[in-house]
Design brief:
mainly beta; 14-stranded antiparallel β-barrel; two-stranded antiparallel ribbon; globular; 16 strands; Porin
């Protein structure tokens, strides 16, 4: 999926309907450039993340810088770099809405006052039909590796089931998509988290565990094949 459920800012890669079409596929998409993510959580806790993203066409990668603050006084900065194999993969992610995820992987570094800087790298694999087959995420040397294996997909190539293993602990996930409502839901361990996208494939509202995160997009950027 294009974005994680709650707590993560959107990638710089979101959809544009009504764009030029080449060979039956969209030629361009519109990416988020600046945005704000406001999360309201149980107990009165709220947080604000102000973000900006830049897409480097020559490297086929997006860099998003996010400044987080909350009502407890915590602050930190995260920088995420997401890589794709080709511009076609970037644009083709939004051939459906909710979008597919065709990224090769993401590296995120978090730093802030009183925090030890941490870097998490995730790598995603695909089959010959460009369906994601798995994700491996490593936070730091010596930390448990998280491995996700996708086991089924819908007609659009979006995962519908997965197993997740972190260290010696394991679990399962199921995913459902409602294209008419533009929602994607993930269920695991008795909890369901839902992400709603706007008409362009931009993340709009996330709901998970009693928390609601609302994304406001301020400016956008054009990404073409």
């Amino acid at each position: 999926m294009v974005i994680a459920f709650l707590g993560c800012a959107p990638l710089a890669l979101t959809a544009q309907t009504g764009q030029a079409v080449r060979g039956g596929a969209a030629a361009c998409r519109t990416g988020v450039a600046t945005y704000r993510l406001v999360t309201a959580s149980p107990g009165g806790l709220s947080s604000t993340t102000d973000g900006s993203c830049v897409f480097d066409r020559t490297k086929t990668e997006s860099t998003c810088t996010n400044l987080y603050s909350d009502t407890l006084g915590r602050r930190f900065t995260s920088v995420s770099v997401t890589r794709h194999a080709s511009l076609a993969d970037v644009v083709d992610e939004v051939s459906v809405n909710p979008p597919r995820n065709l990224a090769l992987g993401t590296t995120t570094t978090v730093s802030g006052p009183g925090l030890d800087a941490t870097t998490t790298t995730s790598l995603q694999t695909y089959d010959a039909r460009r369906r994601p087959t798995g994700v491996t995420a490593v936070q730091r040397s010596g930390a448990p590796t998280s491995t996700t294996v996708y086991t089924s997909w819908d007609a659009a190539g979006r995962p519908t089931a997965a197993t997740v293993t972190t260290g010696r602990q394991g679990g399962s996930q199921t995913f459902t998509y409602d294209d008419a409502a533009r929602t994607q839901s993930m269920s695991s361990g008795g909890m369901t988290c839902t992400q709603t996208f706007d008409e362009n494939g931009n993340p709009a509202v996330s709901r998970c565990g009693g928390s609601t995160a609302t994304t406001t997009v301020f400016t956008t950027q054009q990404i073409c094949r």
